[in-house]
Amino acid sequence: MKEGLMEYRCVQCGFQVKTLFVQYSPGNIRLMKCEKCKAVADEYIECELMIVLIDLILHKPKAYRHLLYNVLNQQGTYFQGLLWKLLFGFLVLDAYRSLLVKRHDEKWGMSMSISSYFWLYRKILVDVFLGNFMFLCCFLLAIRKLLKTSAQFFRLGKLLLAVLISSYFKILLVAMMVWEFPPSVIYIIDLLVLSSNTVALKVITESDMNPCVGACFIAHAVKFCTTQAF
Q1: Is the dihedral of CA 11, 56, 210, 202 positive or negative?
Q2: pTM
Q3: Please, are residues 147 and 212 in contact by the beta-carbon 8 Å criterion?
Q4: Whether 93 and 194 share a structural domain
Q5: For the packed helices 153-165 and 114-146, what is the interaxial angle rounded to 10 degrees?
Q6: Pair (175, 218) in one structural domain
Q7: Are residues 186 and 218 in the same domain?
Q8: Do 104 and 126 have their domain in common?
Q9: How many CB atoms lie within 10 A of CB 205?
């Protein structure tokens, strides 16, 4: 990690720190403490990746601070490429979710004509792009109204990254390619994504939990209604 390029944060209290560790020799480091809370600034540096993943699943804010502030660098040259890759993966998983919903709502059969497949995939594309457009618009508007802050251009990348990263529960949809699950599982995954988005928004904006819950709920509700309507 190069110093001066990243906005490091203490994972415990969110206070900005200059550096996370001092390296004396390869494999010999000393973790730095936060000047505010006096705790180790980022304990995850010495943890296995599995520990970080478990804490993310448990919705621990300190795990999100570690990932969004101390690992992913918005000023890095790779940031734009990472953002596009995450966006592509997000849209693909969203399209697959829409496909699963329509597969359960509309009884598929081998007798479906080419025109039926065409209209089906057309509806999926409308769901994905229109639904996410409405989600983003309502999300930014709700942040401005409920959190009393605006998503300036320099923070828009952080907000988008937080939403994409915290939507990792969508990966569970891949399991539905192999095993048969009831349609209710899709909506359970949606709720997990909603809760994860809320924690990520709280970490990025340093706001209270209740406004973050409201902003994420409104955005997801509008997206759901939009996809159902069309």
Answers
A1: positive
A2: 0.86
A3: yes
A4: yes
A5: 120
A6: yes
A7: yes
A8: yes
A9: 20
Question: What band does 26 get if pLDDT is binned at 50, 70 and 90?
Answer: confident
Are 215 and 169 within 8 A, CB to CB?
no
Residue 159 lies in a domain: yes
Same domain, 34 and 90: no
Which of 51, 71, 91 is at the close of a domain? 71
The answer to whether residues 96 and 145 belong to one domain is yes
Which residue intervals of 106-176 are DSSP H helices? 114-146, 153-165
34's enclosing H/E stretch is none
CB 218 within 8 A of CB 136: no
User: What are the structure tokens assigned to 70, written together?
Assistant: 């101390």
Q: What is the model's pLDDT at position 4?
A: 41
Q: Clarify whether residues 32 and 132 are in a common domain.
A: no
pLDDT in tens, 49-102: 999 999 999 999 999 999 999 988 665 556 778 888 999 999 999 999 998 888
The set of residues, in sequence order, having a beta carbon less than 8 Å from that of 195 and lying 6+ positions away, is 59
pLDDT > 80? residue 35: yes
Give pLDDT tens digits for 103-125: 766 655 555 667 777 778 888 89
- Residue 196: count other Cβ atoms within 10 Å of its Cβ: 23
The answer on 84 and 50 residing in a single domain is no
Q: Domain total for the chain? A: 2
Asked if residue 65 lies in contact with residue 14, where contact means CB atoms within 8 angstroms, the answer is yes
pLDDT at 151: 52
pLDDT at residue 2 is higher than 50: no
Domain of 171 in residue numbering reads as 78-229
